[in-house]
UniProtKB/TrEMBL annotation:
This is L-ascorbate peroxidase 1, cytosolic. Belongs to the peroxidase family. Ascorbate peroxidase subfamily. It catalyses: 2 a phenolic donor + H2O2 = 2 a phenolic radical donor + 2 H2O. PROSITE patterns: PEROXIDASE_1, PEROXIDASE_4. It comes from Solanum tuberosum (Potato). The lineage of its organism: Eukaryota, Viridiplantae, Streptophyta, Embryophyta, Tracheophyta.
Length: 126
């Protein structure tokens, strides 16, 4: 199974500049890139409760736990998540979302709606 057969998702190894360029080519701003990245709060990459959609992703990014000597690099986020906090423009949005969950929810909703409207295709359930 190919994880992204249509090539719509950016590589997880991209740096912040490349991520911003990738999203810009698809008509998304840096703010929308950061908001959509907040979906990474779900799952098992070390961002709070993996089944709760909240702003813990941004709070943890601001803490940079992978810089500790405890060997957390591979346990917290994707390389692309860690790259976002090395970019001043991205950090501005990360900081805002870490402080204001309602702002994150509103911006995520708008960016996700825009993403879906760009032509996501859905397979019929069997």
């Amino acid at each position: 199974m190919v994880p992204d057969p249509e090539g719509k998702l950016p590589e997880e190894s991209l740096d912040a500049t490349s991520l911003k360029q990738c999203f810009e080519r698809k008509g998304f701003s840096t703010q929308e890139l950061v908001a959509l990245s907040g979906a990474h709060t779900l799952g098992s990459k070390g961002f709070g409760n993996p089944t709760v959609f909240d702003n813990e992703y941004f709070k943890i990014l601001m803490e940079k736990p992978w810089l500790s000597s405890g060997g957390m690099t591979s346990m917290v986020g994707l390389p692309s998540d860690r790259a976002l906090v090395e970019d001043d423009e991205c950090v501005g949005w990360i900081s805002k979302y870490a402080e204001d969950q309602s702002l994150f929810f509103d911006d995520f909703k708008n960016a996700y709606t825009k993403l879906v409207d760009t032509g996501a295709t859905w397979k019929k359930a069997l």
